[in-house]
Amino acid sequence: xxxxxxxxxxxxxxxxxxxxxxxxxxxxxxxxxxxxxxxxxxxxxxxxxxxxxxxxxxxxxxxxxxxxxxxxxxxxxxxxxxxxxxxxxxxxxxxxxxxxxxxxxxxxxxxxxxxxxxxxxxxxxxxxxxxxxxxxxxxxxxxxxxxxxxxxxxxxxxxxxxxxxxxxxxxxxxxxxxxxxxxxxxxxxxxxxxxxxxxxxxxxxxxxxxxxxxxx
Length: 216
Fold this sequence. Notes:
- By secondary structure, this protein is of the alpha+beta class.
- The chain is built from 8 helices and 4 strands.
- It has a 4-stranded antiparallel β-sheet, sandwiched between helices.
- Helix 3 runs antiparallel to helix 8 (173-180).
- It is globular, with a radius of gyration of 20 Å.
């Protein structure tokens, strides 16, 4: 792929939250997941698993579970400066129920040899405990699955689909894991809702000069 084509693909991808009521072919979804598994991952562990949900009733149940938790939180006594924002969040929590497809992204626990050494020494060595805190602030497994989801989003965009990466459904993490009947060692980290887009969001990015520096 020429750099210009790659740049166009990356720059034109957007988070899409409205979709046409049109089926997404299984082979397109399979290819997106297949290419996602070629993303970089810690120790080549490949501990991810992708559950593709096309059943509208099940997607609706997942969305309802998320909405139920969002409603509960919005009903708590909340600081005045957060109230308007949390109510706005509440209203948008289950929008993905209209998505033709939701891919639930899971990952297994991953421990590198460094993690194992640090865990073994954590209780008796303050320095090991401190380093382990650093490691846990950005787990390798989470970084790996994030790379996979990013790759998937670009593949879906290239196929003419619109998708959105969702972290909010984690407020109903256990409920969704139970609905999808996954093994206990799998950990839900996100949902990717998708379909053929019925909107064309046009959000910009901050100039690169604001987010990058060189140290020479």
